[in-house]
Structure formats: C-alpha cells, structure tokens
Amino acid sequence: MKHDSKERYGSVSKTFHWLMAALIGWQLLKFGDRIAEGEHWVGETLVPWHVSIGTLLLVMIVLRLVWVMTQRHQRPAQDPATARLVKAGHGLLFAGMLLMPLTGIMVMLGGGYGLTAFGLEIFAKGDEIAWAATIGSLHSPLAWALTVLIIGHIGMALTHHFVHRDDTLKRML
Ligand code: HEM
Ligand code: HEM
User: Which residue ranges run through the membrane (predicted)?
Assistant: First the structure.
C-alpha cells in the first residue's frame, strides 16, 4: 500500500523514513573530521559527499513534509497516554531534518564558498555574508542535538519492540 493507514505506514512513508535515515547516518560521519582531521578512509571517501547529500536531503524533507500533510488523517494511531510526547519528538526530528541542510547552506554562502551539489552549481562563489555565517554557526550545535534525538528515537523504537513487544517498529518495516 502506497498510503499510510491507522495500522501501518505505507510504502512512500517507509521509503522516505529509511532512505533518509541512511543518508542522515552518512551525514553524521562528518563528525569524523574531528578524528585525525578527517585523514582516514571515512573522511576521504564518504565525507566529501556531505554538501551534495545534504542538499539532496533538503529536497527530500520538503517532499516528505508535503506527503505527511496529505496523510495526516490516516497515520498509525499512538497510545493516547504518550501521543503528545511522541508527536513532539517526531516534530523535533522533522525540524532537525529541515534545519540541518538550511544551516549547512548558510555555512557555505556565509563563507563565500558558493553551493555545488553533485557537480551542479547552485550558487556561485562570492563574497562572505556575515548574517548567513551567523545562522551557519548553528549547524554544528544542531548536529549534536539531532544526534541525541536520533539516539533517543532509536532507543524508543527498540524498547517498544523488545520490552513492550508491540507493533510500533513492525509498522515502519
Ligand atoms: C541533514 C543534513 C545534514 C547533516 C545531518 C549534517 C551534519 C553535519 C555534522 C555532524 C557536521 C560536523 C559538525 C561538528 O563536527 O561539530 C557538519 C559540518 C558541516 N556541514 Fe553539515 N550536515 C547536513 C547538511 C549540510 C549541508 C546541506 C551543507 C552545505 C550545503 C553542510 C555543510 C557543512 C559544513 C561546511 C560543515 C563544516 C563546518 C561546521 O562544522 O560548521 N551540511 N554537518
Ligand atoms: C535505526 C534507526 C531508526 C529506527 C529503528 C526508527 C524507527 C522508527 C519507528 C518504529 C517509527 C514509527 C513510530 C510510530 O509509529 O510511532 C519511526 C518514525 C519516525 N522516524 Fe524513525 N527510526 C530510525 C531512524 C530515524 C532517523 C535517523 C530519523 C530522522 C532524523 C527518523 C525520523 C522519524 C520520524 C520523523 C518518524 C515519524 C513518522 C514519519 O513521518 O516518518 N527516524 N521511526
């Protein structure tokens, strides 16, 4: 089923969720630049895709949010006791997925580096832009905050599956 239902997420939501989870995992490897200044296999092979994949993630999150809006009346039901907390948690994950690429792009424009994704020039190199660099300085703290959120999110998914033994994880698989 393409669409979500009260029982489970549909194929479109699942594809967005797992493809983006994998690409975000890839993006977080950028923390590896803190080890030996990125002079290792991960830093030299996977991390150079950071700007291209980040830009792709911006397109994906916009499409995903539009999809979520169309599905909002037919998504899996949450336990009423924790529904608000779950909504807030997922909301923060969505906010993180939107703010990471936006602030990342601000790092590039603020530094005057321009923006090129997959070899395609989107913004040419230019002068430094102080206000953009200021917004860009939020990129790293947001990356740490998103990492904590993701760890909590995965922890909750595994708790549902192995401790409560309910269908929360299965409906996203
Ligand atoms: C979901 C998307 C993204 C995630 C999860 C992400 C994650 C990260 C992480 C974890 C770091 C390392 C921060 C640190 O060591 O403190 C980083 C740094 C960086 N990212 Fe991203 N990023 C994303 C998108 C982007 C985009 C779209 C761009 C540019 C267009 C970008 C440009 C940069 C740059 C230039 C740095 C190094 C400068 C800095 O640390 O402020 N990122 N990012
Ligand atoms: C191993 C990694 C992950 C696991 C096991 C996992 C598991 C799940 C599960 C079971 C749900 C359904 C929860 C429910 O119905 O209440 C869910 C939903 C969700 N997950 Fe994850 N997740 C993972 C990674 C991520 C990552 C990296 C992000 C984004 C940064 C993310 C963002 C979301 C969001 C926003 C939802 C709400 C439903 C939607 O609209 O897609 N997840 N996840």
Answer: 12-29, 49-70, 91-113, 142-163
